[in-house]
Model the fold of this input.
Amino acid sequence: MKFVNLKPIIYVGLVLLFLTSCGENKSTQNNPVEKSINDLLSKMTLEEKIGQMNQLTGLGLSDEMQYNVREGRVGSILNELEPTVINELQRLAVEESRLGIPLIFARDVIHGFKTIFPIPLGQAASWNPSVVEDGARVAAIEAAAAGIRWTFAPMIDVSRDPRWGRIAESLGEDPYLTSVLGAAMIKGFQGEDLSAPNSMAACAKHFAGYGASESGKDYNTTWIPELQLRELYLPPFIAAAEAGAATFMCSFNDINGVPSSGNPYLNKTILRDEWKYDGLLVSDWGSIEQMIPHGVCADLKEAAELAANAYVDMDMMGFAYINYLKELVESGAVSEKIVDDAVRNILRLKHRLGLFENPYVEVLDEMPFYTESSLQKAKQAAVESAVLLKNDGNVLPLGSKVKTVAVVGPLADAQADQVGTWCFDAEPEHSVTPLTAIRNEYGKKVNVIAEKGLVYSRDKDKKGIERAVNAAKRSDVVLFFAGEESVLSGEARSRADISLPGAQSEMLTALKATGKPVVLVIMAGRPLTIEKEVKEADAVLYAFHGGTMAGPALADLIFGKAIPSGKLPVTIPRMVGQIPVYYAHKNTGRPGANVDLIDDIPVGTLQTSIGFTSYHLDAGTTPLFSFGYGLSYTNFDYSDVKLSKNTISRGETLNVECTVKNTGKYDAAEVVQFYMRDKVAKLARPVRELKGFEKIHLKAGESKTVKFSLTEDDLAYWNEDMVKRAEPGEFEVWVSPNSQTGKAVSFYLK
Ligand code: BGC
Done:
């Protein structure tokens, strides 16, 4: 049974944080690391301090970079990948700069370095923290061997807009799920010991509210009331700080007009004063400089002043600090204390990474890439990331009557696309595609007829469709691998129309017309609006971009060697106009129910006769698939939910249990979900909120009792006085297989 309840982690984290912070004032002088940081700081010139606050992109061993390193004008380098170059730059820093302060080498290692795991949104569909932790651990082992000791992940921006390309990098729409999985990813990257040579510092990003960008367009403005910021966008960052994330990164967006790189309320009041965070805060790439086009600074000097006074410790490729911070400190516009605090945070990270003792990367003859164990973990992650959305007539898994399969579609054999966005270091030739895996693993069992039909996902040239249709006619089942190329999601890759691109939908219609059962496998970076396609296909497996081992994972799922267990970490809308659409919505004063849809309304109907409720005439009240949804090849039966009490007092814990039985014929895993609703509160509360989950494995016929609990803190919410407090009254809980079903059971807080 996998552990998935964050509460104990948060609790232990809080205690540790409390103990550390209690000790901090007293012990700063006694703490050897802080003492050595202060000793070093006292020897540094202002220029050397500012140099530490400067992060540059790699230029190899160019004269310019050698000069910057020797003169102590750079504290960290990103995107330098050659271990021998890394070591030479490090040697210049350690042996030839005046104070010998080591550099930190950084890189975006988001869902794998060489062995690529599913995109983070796909990993989130596993609802399995150990899968996510394993992915990050493998990434750290591979990247650290190349000299990378700092990754810019996890991205824990709560994302409710599938138009936004970066939803691919997110862990979905829910703050609790994002918190649990974000913490797991941090644990995986940082390992047991951050100073071990195979650990990387994690970076909780983007602080904050980046996922709220208007219309899902990247970098766009956000309007976030403080209550929503605290309730929705900040919890994953608190969890990340508690999980020990060594660094945070500012976001590009402005919140209510204030860009994050110039926001002292976010970066000082909340991050430092409230949360007592003592890690490093880095800007995003050029985000200090970009406060000029934002329109809040006239020039780079003003940008440097604003960012420094907003407590941004390190300037990533903005050239603002290195050019202007010295004169700003000398003129008194920025206090030297701010600079000293930033440098302390940077030196502390270098200590935590063990770089003062062990600055170099061992140059290995054989790199620990693509090991058998890493590939198996990547495959397991891809298995658990696929969500079965439909399976009419139990088309899946393919049975022994299937003798010939048609493998069609632009994603069936697309090595580069299946790894998804944000994997700079992936080597596509290592990706095993569904076509290769089906041929290699199942080629003896079935005949495989391969015909792409369309060359790539946006292809509108229908010439090849006929060949795919012919292949379908000669087969017992059609496996259609559709979706998006990797370049259509990720940073700056937002879409306004999130339907299947190109002629894929027409191809599906043509395949369906053959009368053969069609299994639609979607490999994409975001939820796509596929209502029509879901109706047409017999089975739908939503696989996201599954990484290096997507092919073997999907082949096993299709042939029944593996059983689907993924659940949606994000809602799939019917159409773009529904966005934002998420399960934890408010009820409104006029919730939509039993509504008339546009084509059902008789001509001439009076305005007043079809009621006044909250819905879209053309989309109804529901999305295509809700958060938490996902089928299996087996069935699970949930017994009635039992509560330890009907009424609890403040400070008491409510225990909740439910027995789940596997009533089908396959051994399988189920994600048991635990939701709560505060029925009556001063501020309207969501219709459901996820409060826990557990992924359990049940043999056919087996039952297990799953236990959850709620404390007063779980019942609390941020109120209009900006205080988190539980109010007395009625609450409801559900233990259910998704966010929409299950029977509510009430209890009361006195
Ligand atoms: C992205 C960050 C990333 C950084 C460094 C930026 O454009 O927003 O998420 O870590 O680049 O590559």
Remarks:
- The two ends are 34 Å apart (CA to CA).
